[in-house]
Amino acid sequence: MKPIFRPSSEFDGITVVDPIHRRQFPIRTSDAVDPRPSDVDQFYFPVDNATEFTTDTLVLPYVVITHVRTVDGTFLTKAEDFSYEQFPEGEYLLELNAPIRIYLRVSGALTLASSAEHMAFDFDTETRVRMGARSYHEQPAATVTTTSSPRDVMAAVSTFGSALKTLSCERSLPSLRGHPPRIELGDELHVPAEIAPPETGVRIELPPELPMIYSASTLAYYLGGTLVPGDDPRLVTDRGFVHPLDHPERGYEGEIERILRQSLLFDCVTRTEGLYQIPLHERRAIEPLLDIPLDELYELDLAEQVETYLDVPFDAVREHVPTWLLSTTVTDDITNVGAIPYLANNLSLVTTPREHNRHEPVPETPDPIDSFLRGAEVRRGEQRAESDPYVAPTVTDSLEHAWLGRGMPIGANKLIERAFENRLERSSSTEGIDITVVCNEPEMSPEYDAGDALYGKRDELAFDIDVHRNLSVDELASVLTTPTDFLHYIGHIEDGHFICRDGKLDVESIDDVAVDTFLLNGCRSYEQGIALVDSGSIGGVVTYSEITNKSAIEIGRTIAHLLNRGFSLRSALTVVREQQMVGNQYITVGDGSIEIAQSESGTPFVCHLGRAGDGRYELGITTYPTIESGMGALFTPFISDIETYFLSGGEVSTFSVDEETLIRFLRLERIPVIVDGDLSWSTEVNPELL
Question: Which of the two ends of the chain, N or C, has the fewest CB atoms closer than 10 A to its terminal CB?
Fold first, then answer.
C-alpha cells in the first residue's frame, strides 16, 4: 500500500502516512489545503505516491535533515537545526529525511529557517507545492525455488543482488537496497527471469557447502555477486583480480566479514562525491589511505571499486568502521535457507556455530528466588520442560546477536522464519499506534500505572492505549485475536499457559493471533511467545526462567519507554541488558528488528553523560540502526557547532559541550541517558546534580 496524504482535522496542514510501517509525519500550512493527486515522475528520485496543493508556508513538527537540490538532482546545500538559507526565484527539489522519505518540488523564491525544535519553508507568496513520498517498506520482488543441493542454493543466493536499486556506491544507503527475493524449498531449481543476477563482474568461488554459502550470502547481496563452486574460497572479478578468503588469522568467516565491512565503509566515503556531498567524519580519516582521488574512484564501476578498497589493509581502517548492528549464527540445516534473504536484507553478518557454543546453563534470576515471582515457584536447579538445548551464538562485536536454527539462544534473538513472513503480510493502517496492556495480577499493577507515561506523549504520533485487568480465558483469547500493534502482558504464566481469573489459556488453542508484537512479562513465557509467532505475530520479548516482580516492573517499564522512542524489540532489550537490569532470562523471539514507533532522529540512540571539568560535560552517543535507517545511514547530533555527519552504528563520538548546549540538546526529545552507570531520561536529567 502506498503512502497517503491526509488533510488534518486538528490543524491547517497535511499528514503524510505510511500505512505499512504505521509512520506519520504531520506538516502545517498557512491555511487549510485541498491536496490533489499529482505525477510521481517529477521528483528525480523514485516516489510511491504524489500530491499537490497551494500554500505560502510549510512548518515541520521537528527538525529533519533536508537536502536542497535543483530539479535534476544537483546538490545545493543541506540544512538541519539553526539553519537559515535564502534562494532566489527558481525551481527547487527538497529532500526531507523524515520517518517517511518526502520530496517537495516548488517554483519561486524560497527561505528555509530552523530552530532547535522546528523547521519552516517560506515561499513569499501562494505557491504550488508538489509533494512525493516513498515508503521505506520493501517486499521481495519474487520467489526463487531451490532444492536441498548446495549448488542450487548457490544459484538461489546469487539472485540477491537483483534487489539492489543501484550498482553505484549509493547502494550503501539503506533506501537504495531492495529486499532480496524469497527462497523456498522445492523439487527443482527455478529462478524467475526477472530476477537474474546483476552484471557486476564480481563472483565468490566456494566449495558447495551450506555453512560457507550461508556465511557469504550477505556479501553476495551487497556486492551483487554470484556464488559459484570452487575448490578454494576466493573473491574474483572479471578483470582478473583474485582475493583469497581463507585468511590465516581471520579465517573464512572473518575475511567475509572484513570485506563486507570495509566495502560499506569505503562506499559511504566515496558517495560523498555524488548525490550526498556532505562533510563526513569518516572521509577525513579514510581519504588519505587511498592512492586514487575520490572523484575518480566515484566514477569507477563496482568491481574496480572493490579492488581498490581491498588494497588498503583492514588494520588501517578497522577503528573507523561503524559497529555492525547484527550478527546471526546459523546452523547448517537446509530448512534455514528460507530465512537467509531476510538476514541479507538486515545486512547481517552470518556465522556458523562452534561446537563449544552448545551449553546447558539455566539463565540466572537476578533477585532472590524466594521473592514474589510471576509464575509457579520452581526449586533451584529444577530442570526446564523444554526439549531444545540452550545454545550460545558466535561471539562478535556487533550491537545485537541472533540465532537461526534449533536451540534456545542465550542473550540473543531466537529467529523464526514464520515471523518474517508475518511481517510482510502485516495489515496496513492509516490510524495511530494501538497499544494493549493486560494485567492479570493486581500485585503487578505498578508496571502499568499511569499508562500514558509508558506509551504516548508524542506530539507527532497518535497512540490508542487499551488497558485490561483480571481477564478470563475467553476475554484474553478475544484480546489476542483483536488487531493491535503491541501487547504488553503483565501476569502469571505457569506450565506454558497464561493464568486467567477462571483458568489457563494456551495460545496454541488460538488459530489466528492478531497481535503484531508483544512483551510477555511473566515467568517462563518463552513457549507462549513462540506460539504467538507461529500463530501470526511478528516478534516479542519473553522469558526463559523465573523473574521477580520487583525486577519485572523495572524492566517492563524501561522496555516500554525505549519502544516508545523508536528502538526495535531487539535493540531495546540490548540496552536493558547492557545496563545489567536483566540477565539472560529475557530474550527476543521472532523478528526482533520490528519497531512499534518511529524515532524522531531517524536512528534511535543512547547518550552517556559525565562531567569534563571547567563547567563542561562529556556527551557520548551510541546509535542503534534500524531496518529503515540501517547500516550505511548517516547520523548527526543537533548540537551547536557540530556540522559533521557520522556513519550510524555504535558509538559515533564523544562531544565536549557547555551546560547551555547540553540542556538544549537534552530537551529536544526524550532520549535514554546513562549517568554514572544508571539509565535515566534526558527530560529528567539535571546537569547541575552530576
Answer: C
**Alpha helix segments (H runs only) across 271-405:** 281-286, 294-299, 302-310, 314-317, 340-345
Q: Given the C-alpha cell 528525480, which residue does it identify?
A: 44
How many angstroms separate the CA atoms of 402 and 588, rounded? 9
Asked if residue 357 has pLDDT above 50, the reply is no
The residues that bridge with 103 in the sheet, in sequence order, are 95, 132
Pairing of strands 226-229, 202-206: parallel
- What's the Cα-to-Cα distance from 257 to each of 232, 271, 310, 330, 348, rounded to whole Å? 17, 21, 13, 15, 10
- Side by side, which strands form the sheet with 358-359? 358-359, 390-391, 408-409
Average pLDDT, the chain: 88
pLDDT digits (tens, 9 = 90+) for 431-459: 778 889 998 887 777 777 654 566 656 55
pLDDT band at 375 (very low <50, low <70, confident <90, very high): low
| Rounded-to-integer distance, Cα 537 and Cα 594, Å | 11
Amino acid at 630: G
Using the predicted structure, report yes or no on whether residue 264 has a pLDDT greater than 90.
yes
**Grid cell in block for residue 640:** 551547536
- Segment (H or E) for 565: none
Confidence at residue 358, expressed as pLDDT on a 0 to 100 scale: 43
Give the pairing of strands 23-29 and 49-60.
antiparallel
Burial class (CB within 10 angstroms; exposed 0-12, middle 13-18, buried 19+) of 108: middle
Full set of structural domains in the chain with CATH? 4-134 (no CATH), 143-342 (no CATH), 417-592 (3.40.50.1460), 605-689 (no CATH)
Residue 647 and residue 635 in contact, taking contact as beta carbons nearer than 8 Å = yes
pLDDT value of position 367: 42
Is 517 strand, coil or helix? strand
Torsion of CA 400, 389, 552, 490, to 10 degrees: 110
CA distances from 135 to 22, 163, 384 (A): 10, 16, 44
| Per-residue pLDDT at 448 | 72
Is 264 in a helix, a strand, or coil?
helix
Q: Which three cell numbers stand for residue 169?
A: 556506491
